[in-house]
């Protein structure tokens, strides 16, 4: 039996589809079934000792976390501590989904030289969301102490045809007849990740774990290729137009981070190193390739409207 949290989120939806298509017995938990803010809930939920727990659920309201730090830390840190302890005690393998927000640029960029954040790079989060997720990672590493019973999977810029995300927001804005142009940040770099491809990777890990395989404690997963939010928006516009999601190619202009202030700081540079992932999973498609798949799916399920 496999349990997974965050069943109503982007990744949870994609996982549910793949559990079904692969014939894997799985139970998903949303907020109604498992309140992560209830620190006693882990013991109750995990008492039947599933073989694997994929922990996708998290406090992900990045800006709100700045004024709601107590709940952010409770869900992303203290709850993870409780879950880790229960998993260790009950011999449940934990797959924990983490984020590029545990990093910030710092020394990883030197002039125009691109360097990637490696799984063992020093954590350097800035906002409450990143800090709380980094604490969650530390609880896992301390609890399992290289026991091969847990894996941390960091990802970045996740999107899907379901839920709220950057590509769907861009499509909605481009569909708005009252908007004649968009302005998008160009000085933040990262790797977009289609939730469907991330779900494929998690299914791959699950099959390996069930067969007794072991994997590095920390893995990075995203699509290959690098983009700014501006690059990402342009691609969304162009592909959406080809699938008739939008009628016109409205202009999109680049702006600096300072031109779009937010309560929480965003990583200026969060390109995850995929070397270890490629060794075990093979080459991951470029983000543009998977973006076309996602937008095509969006066009099919939405009747051309988001």
Which descriptor suits the 3D outline?
globular
Biggest sheet architecture: 6 strands, parallel
Q: Reading side by side through the largest sheet, how are the strands ordered?
A: 2-1-3-4-5-10
Low-pLDDT segments: none
Overview in brief:
This protein is an alpha/beta fold and 306 residues long.
Written description of the protein model:
One of its GO terms (molecular function) is dTDP-4-dehydrorhamnose reductase activity. This protein has 306 residues and is of the alpha/beta class. It has a domain at 2-165 and 192-224 and 271-281: Rossmann fold (3-Layer(aba) Sandwich). The protein is built from 9 helices and 12 strands. The chain has helices spanning 10-21, 41-45, 69-90, 128-144, 166-175, 195-210, 229-242, 275-281, 287-302, and strands at residues 2-5, 26-29, 52-55, 93-99, 150-155, 158-159, 182-185, 189-190, 193-194, 218-220, 227-228, 252-255. The strands form 4 sheets. It has a 6-stranded parallel β-sheet with strand order 2-1-3-4-5-10, sandwiched between helices. Strand 1, helix 1 (10-21) and strand 2 (26-29) form a beta-alpha-beta unit. The longest helix is centred in the first third of the chain and has 22 residues, at 69-90. The mean pLDDT is 94.
What keyword list fits this structure?
single chain, 306 residues, Rossmann fold, six-stranded parallel beta sheet, two-stranded parallel sheet, 12 strands, oxidoreductase, dTDP-4-dehydrorhamnose reductase, EC 1.1.1.133, dTDP-4-dehydrorhamnose reductase activity, NADP
Q: How are the SSEs placed, and which strands pair?
A:
Blueprint: E1 2-5, H1 10-21, E2 26-29, H2 41-45, E3 52-55, H3 69-90, E4 93-99, H4 128-144, E5 150-155, E6 158-159, H5 166-175, E7 182-185, E8 189-190, E9 193-194, H6 195-210, E10 218-220, E11 227-228, H7 229-242, E12 252-255, H8 275-281, H9 287-302
Parallel strand pairs: 1-2, 1-3, 3-4, 4-5, 5-10, 6-9, 7-12
Antiparallel strand pairs: 8-11
Helix pairs in contact: 1-6, 3-4, 5-7, 7-9
